[in-house]
Each structure stands twice: as structure tokens, then as C-alpha cells.
Write a structure and sequence with these properties.
This protein folds into two domains: about 1-40; about 50-165, Beta Barrel (Lipocalin). The protein has about 170 residues and is α+β, with helices and mostly antiparallel strands. Strands 1-3-4-5-6-7-8-9 form an eight-stranded antiparallel beta barrel. About 25% of the residues lie in helices and about 35% in strands.
């Protein structure tokens, strides 16, 4: 909203004031657009999420609940102090490694898992809600949210629901 206000203020300033004020307004507007352009994703060299997800991600939290009626309370497991790593590799291999001896670990089994991104996209529905970003790990389909430093992988089934929270 501030951006729209700034642009309309600048238009008004340019239209109704002296040449010097107009030049100042144009310079301010150019600086504003330069700053806005510098906020663009620094990882623009990635072609798509399939490239963007590659690399090592640290599991920091796992949440679980039974989908009873009403749903059970959410159980949360904090792994932020553990070094549990999910590494997405080329050729669709996800390798899970880490120390889980002293914690109640609920994540994926340690070892290699096949994964596939954006599979069967137009036909996939979960509880009537379409998810535009999909990843299949093993044989189970998940939705996901991906940013430069965070990855959230969700599953909603008829019996249970869970989510993995990972960071770079």
C-alpha cells in the first residue's frame, strides 16, 4: 500500500510543480525502483523448484496430528539442536542422515529415498484442496512450500497429517 501511495504522490509532484522539483521527484522515483529491483530473489539462476530444492536442508521441526473428528492436538518435535540432514540430490535421490539416538525421531528413515517433484499435477487433490507444488517421497505424495532458506513438506491423509520443517 505504501508503494502505491508513493507512486501516486510522485505523479502528483511531477505534474503540478516546477522543473527542479520534477527532476528531484524523478531521481527519487529512480532510486525507489532501483531499491525495489534489488529486492528480487538473489537465486534467480535457478530454473525451477527442481533445481532450487537441491542441496542440504536441516530438519528443525516435525509436527503430527491424527485426523479424527475433531482433529487431535498437534504434537510437535523439536530437532533444531540435532544435526539431521535431508539432502536432495540430482537424479531424484533424497538422502537422510544424522544423529537420532537420543531423540524421539519421527522423520523419514535414515538412508536414500526416491523423490519426484510436481508429479501428476493437474489431477492431484487432497481433501478437495488443490496443491500447486507437489513432491512424492517414496510412494507418498506431499505438498511443499519452498523459499531460499526454508522448506516445509506437508502430508494430509484420511487418518493423520504431518509436516517437516527444514532450513538451509
Amino acid at each position: 500500500m505504501k508503494d502505491l501511495f508513493l507512486i501516486s504522490w510522485m505523479k502528483n509532484l511531477i505534474k503540478n510543480h516546477s522543473a527542479q522539483t520534477q527532476k528531484t521527484a524523478v531521481v527519487i522515483l529512480c532510486v525507489f525502483f532501483f531499491m525495489a529491483a534489488s529486492c528480487v530473489n538473489k537465486n534467480a539462476d535457478y530454473k525451477n523448484d527442481k533445481d532450487y530444492i537441491l542441496g542440504k536442508w536441516k530438519l528443525v521441526k516435525y509436527e503430527y496430528r491424527l485426523m479424527t473428528s475433531p482433529p487431535s492436538p498437534r504434537q510437535s518435535f523439536d530437532y533444531s539442536k540435532n544435526n539431521i540432514v535431508y539432502e536432495f540430490k540430482r537424479k531424484n535421490i533424497l538422502t537422510v542422515t544424522g544423529e537420532t539416538d537420543n531423540v524421539e525421531y519421527r522423520g523419514l528413515e535414515m538412508g536414500d529415498h526416491a523423490y519426484e517433484m510436481n508429479y501428476n499435477l493437474k489431477d492431484y487433490m487432497t481433501h478437495g484442496l488443490p496443491f500447486p507444488y507437489l513432491i512424492k517421497i517414496g510412494t507418498i505424495g506431499h505438498s511443499y512450500l519452498l523459499s531460499a532458506k526454508e522448506l516445509e513438506i506437508n502430508y494430509i491423509g484420511e487418518v493423520d497429517a504431518y509436516a517437516y520443517y527444514l532450513i538451509r
